[in-house]
Design goal:
There is one protein chain. By secondary structure, this protein is an alpha/beta fold. The chain has helices at about 20-25, 30-35, 65-70, 75-85, 100-110, 125-135, 155-160, 185-195, 255-260, 265-270, 280, 300-315, and strands at about 95-100, 120-125, 140-145, 150-155, 165-170, 200-205, 230-235, 245-250. The protein has 12 helices and 8 strands. Helix 5 (about 100-110) packs across helix 10. About 40% of the residues are buried.
Length: about 325
């Protein structure tokens, strides 16, 4: 991450899953990446990657150039796309491509799962967090969203629920299932509360920019310098392609707190032992393809708006 600013020291309650880090350390990909990471880039001598598992990387096993030209740098494209709404620039190292937003949720909850840890979930909220938390043996504590205040977070309840074992608060914006869009002011208060409690924010932004009211969408990563934010999202909702299963997990942390507390290494370890989206699906992120993330011609919310109106009036 680039252009970070420093803040006063703070004790944070989250920590990486040591069992996961230990298990992933023995995977072929992790061992290979650790070895390759120790190579001095200034050394002019060529290297022979004997641990390489992809024969197509070598000239004698190359596929057709047509197929190669279709493969995009999805990670860089996602970083560029999300950076447009942030006061700092994301790097490729901040982005992890996943099999839809569901796998991104699975990864971050697995990373935070350690003995006695708990997370704070909104009520009402998205059921998958409950299921994954139960599977990871993470204790769940619920805070209410307040309908009389536009479904804002009950921050007093959040402070009362949290303790020294609380790792994170889950925040869904735009809201699911309530459909609300949180204001800039409220998002900042959530970040300040997270910092006060020493927890990270998991911001589910799978419906980003699908807003129809007066409140514009503001990504939680805007406040990453106040408290570390892990954003999960995908192309499924805005671009109406849920079956493509292309999502992301992004660390919005200009102060490097997640790196310091072992969360980044743990995320890498979890991703290393997980499946990746097919490369031909990742191609949709390519900025010069027919389906670029930042194109105004795709993900047109007018289609959803008209369809929802038709359903509403017919029922």
């Amino acid at each position: 991450m680039e252009n970070g600013t420093s803040t006063a020291p703070k004790k944070w309650s989250f920590k990486g899953n040591e069992a996961l880090t230990k298990a992933s350390a023995t995977s072929i990909r992790t061992v290979l990446m650790n070895i390759m990471g120790k190579i001095d880039p200034r050394d002019p001598r060529p290297t022979i990657p004997l641990g390489h598992g992809d024969p197509s990387a070598f000239p004698c096993f190359r596929t057709t150039p047509v197929a190669e030209d279709a493969i995009a740098d999805a990670v860089r494209a996602i970083a560029d796309y999300l950076s447009k709404d942030l006061p700092y620039k994301l790097s490729s190292e901040d982005v992890y491509v996943t099999l839809g937003c569901g796998q991104a949720i699975e990864v971050i909850l697995t990373v935070l799962a350690r003995p006695n840890a708990n997370i704070l979930l909104p009520r009402p909220g998205f059921f998958l967090y409950e299921i994954r938390a139960a599977y990871c043996q993470l204790e769940v504590r619920h805070f209410d969203l307040l309908p009389e205040k536009g479904w804002e977070v009950d921050l007093d309840a959040v402070e009362a629920l949290a303790d020294e074992n609380t790792a994170a608060i889950v925040f869904i914006n735009p809201g699911n299932p309530c459909g609300n869009v949180f204001t800039h002011q409220h998002l900042k208060k959530v970040a300040e509360t997270a910092r006060k409690l020493g927890i990270l924010v998991i911001s589910d932004e799978v419906y980003d920019h699908l807003t129809f009211g007066s409140n514009p969408f503001v990504p939680m990563g805007v406040f990453g310098s106040i408290a570390p934010v892990v954003t999960v999202g995908s192309i499924s909702k805005r671009w109406i392609v849920p079956g493509w299963r292309l999502g992301w997990l992004v660390t919005n942390d200009p102060n490097g707190i997640l790196e310091e507390y072992g969360i980044v290494d743990c995320i890498k370890g979890c991703v290393d032992i997980s499946a990746d989206p097919p490369t031909f699906i990742q191609n949709c992120c390519k900025t010069n393809s027919k389906f670029p993330l930042d194109s105004p011609l795709v993900g047109n919310k007018d289609v959803i708006k008209v369809s929802s109106r038709n359903i509403y009036y017919r029922t």
